[in-house]
Amino acid sequence: FPGPFTDVVTTNLKLRNPSDRKVCFKVKTTAPRRYCVRPNSGIIDPGSSVIVSVMLQPFDYDPNEKSKHKFMVQTTYAPPNITDMEAVWKEAKPDELMDSKLRCVFEMPNENDKLNDVDASKSAPVLNTSKQDGPMPKPHSVSLNDTETRKLVEECKRLQAEIMKLTDENRHLRDEGLRLRKVAHSDKSGSPTALALRDNGSNSLPSLLVVIAAIFIGFFLGKFIL
């Protein structure tokens, strides 16, 4: 079984029947919890063969530990009109059974193979990327002479100027609102509630315009950077 053993490792056994009679077979192992065998029993026709897959489950491999896992392929001639496979093995006499024993060997890849695997894993994404997406552009490779880029820069400058203008208007209206509130408090005949509502309405519109303008400039700046 070739390592590493972080995933299932499968080895195939080819069983061939060279006789002129049907043969029953059964595959046994000393470590049944570590292996999955498919098929683990069956019948082989005369002159035919069967592939048996032996799947080793993942485990922590210790190179200092010697493998004691073994397999045994047991065979016997199939009786005529066979109906119960389990009964065949229970009723078979010892001198009618034939067996072949196999010892498991675990092999880890050498250092050269590991280096080749690492190089292949590093180069594979580069090759796939070049085939699918073409060469990757360098960051900030967009030229300022490009027409679309110039338009974005000019639009960003215009929005910045608009924000500054709205900010000044907002500051002016805020100062005006403070002045009107002072006049309302000093003038008993005036309506403080109406003045306050008018002041709040005047202040909210420029602030809203500033927020909208900030959203637009953020959108254009994001598009330019991307």
UniProtKB/TrEMBL annotation:
InterPro entries in the record: Ig-like_fold, MSP_dom, PapD-like_sf, VAP
The terms under GO molecular function for this entry are: FFAT motif binding
Sorted alphabetically, the keyword list is:
Acetylation, Cell junction, Cell membrane, Coiled coil, Disulfide bond, Endoplasmic reticulum, Membrane, Phosphoprotein, Tight junction, Transmembrane, Transmembrane helix
Name a single GO biological process: neuron projection development
Task: Indicate how the chain sits in the lipid bilayer.
Answer: Single-pass type IV membrane protein
UniProt-annotated location(s): Cell junction, Tight junction; Cell membrane; Endoplasmic reticulum membrane
Q: Which residues cross the membrane?
A: 205-225
Q: Where is this region: Disordered?
A: 113-143
Domain of life, per UniProt, equals: Eukaryota
Q: Name one GO cellular component term.
A: bicellular tight junction
Domain MSP: residue ranges? 1-107
Q: Which residues form a coiled coil?
A: 149-176
- What role does this protein play? Endoplasmic reticulum (ER)-anchored protein that mediates the formation of contact sites between the ER and endosomes via interaction with FFAT motif-containing proteins such as STARD3 or WDR44. STARD3-VAPA interaction enables cholesterol transfer from the ER to endosomes. Via interaction with WDR44 participates in neosynthesized protein export. In addition, recruited to the plasma membrane through OSBPL3 binding. The OSBPL3-VAPA complex stimulates RRAS signaling which in turn attenuates integrin beta-1 (ITGB1) activation at the cell surface. With OSBPL3, may regulate ER morphology.
Q: Which PANTHER family match?
A: VESICLE-ASSOCIATED MEMBRANE PROTEIN-ASSOCIATED PROTEIN, VESICLE-ASSOCIATED MEMBRANE PROTEIN-ASSOCIATED PROTEIN A
Record's family? Belongs to the VAMP-associated protein (VAP) (TC 9.B.17) family.
Q: What is this protein called?
A: Vesicle-associated membrane protein-associated protein A
Q: Which organism is it from?
A: Ptilonorhynchus violaceus
Q: What is the lineage of its organism?
A: Eukaryota, Metazoa, Chordata, Craniata, Vertebrata
